[in-house]
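Issue 218. Parser rejects a valid record. Input:
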Amino acid sequence: MTLIHNEANNEITGAKALAGETEKKRLVLLGSTGSIGEQTLEVVRRCPDNFVIAGLACGKRIDRLIRQIEEFRPQAVAVEEETAARRLRELFPGLEALSGEAGLCRLAGQIEADLVLNALVGVAGLKPTLEAGRAGRDVALANKETLVAGGELVTTCFKASGARLLPVDSEHSAIFQALAGNAPETVAKLILTASGGPFLGWNRAQLEQVKPEQALRHPNWEMGRKVTIDSATLMNKGLELIEARWLFDIPEERIEVVIHPESLIHSMVEYNDCSVIAQISLPDMRLPISYALHYPDRPDIGLTSLDFTQIGQMTFRQPDHENFPALELARQALRAGGGAATVLNSANEVMVDRFLNGKAGFLDIPDKVARALAAHRPVERPSLEELLEIDRVTRERVCQWV
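Output the parser choked on:
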C-alpha cells in the first residue's frame, strides 16, 4: 500500500515527546471558511500549544476569513479574487494576501509549513496538492476530488518526494486506523460504509420529485452543500471508492460498500483470516480531522464518548444500484481509466451546481454523468495538462446538455 507511513518521522516525534519538547506544527489550511475548515480551526483551538496557523485560503467568504485572520494571525492568505486580496492587504499591513490558483499553490508549496490541510471543494484542490507533494510536504486530504481526478499522478508525486497523504474523510480515516500495524499482504478487502443519505429506500418516482432543500437535509452529518448532495445521490461513496483505491493501493474489486444508516461504524478492513477491524465512534468530523493533524498521536479534543448501551442496534444493507446508480458509475470510471474518473468528477460538479440552482432535477445528476462517461475517449496515462483539458471539455459538454 502507498500511503501514509514514515518511520523516521515517527521516531523523531517519539524522541521529542520523551525529551519533553513541544514544537508547534505549522499548518496551512486551504478552504478555511467551509465546514471542514471551520471544524479544523475548532480542533486547533482545543490544542493551542500544538499548532501555528501559517496560512489560510478561502473563496468568497471574506468577512469570515477576516475574523480568522484576526484570531490566528497567519503569515499569508489566499482568496479567489484580487480585489479581495487588495482589501486584505489594506486591513492587515504585513500580511501576504494572494489570489487565484497561483495563490493557492504558493500557500501549499512555498509558505513555510509542516502540514497542508486541503479542504477545498472540487477539482480546484488538485494543483495545490501536487504543489505540496513536490515540495515534500505532508497533506491532510479532505478534498477527495484530488485523488478522483488525478489519483495516479498524485500518488506518484508523493512517492517520489516521500511526503505523506493523510486521509481526513471519516471513511478513509477509519480504514487508515484499522490498517495500523498490519502487513499489506494480509488485507483481504476494504469495506466502506455509507449512511444512505436522506432518501434511503426511495424509488425512482419519488426521487424525480426531490428538491434541493430536501437533499440538503442529511440525517447524520453536518457537511458542505456539494458533499451533502453527493451523499444523497451516493456519488460521494463512489468518489470515496476511487479515493480509497489510490490511498491504499487496493484494486477496485476488493473495495466493498455497505449501507449503514446509523453512521457509527465509519469503515472496516477485513483480513485474510476473516477477522474484521472497524473504527467506531459518534459521527463527528473533528475526530478524523484531529487524527490527521496529530498523527500518530490521539489527544483529547473534548468529543462525546460513544455509549454502547444506548445504541440499540446497528443495521447494514446492500446499496440500491437501480435507483442510485452513481456508485456503479464510479466503478465504471475506475475500471476504464484514461481520465474517465476526471470526467465522472467534472460532470458531477456541474450537475450538482445545476441542481442546487434549480436548473436540473435530482435524477439528472447521474443521468448526465453516465452520458459524459459514454462520450469520453480515454487518454493513456494522462498528464496534469491532459487531465485539466478533460475537465474543461467535460464541463463545456455537460453545460451544453443542460
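Fixed in the parser; the record now loads. Residues 5-21 have pLDDT under 50 and may be disordered.
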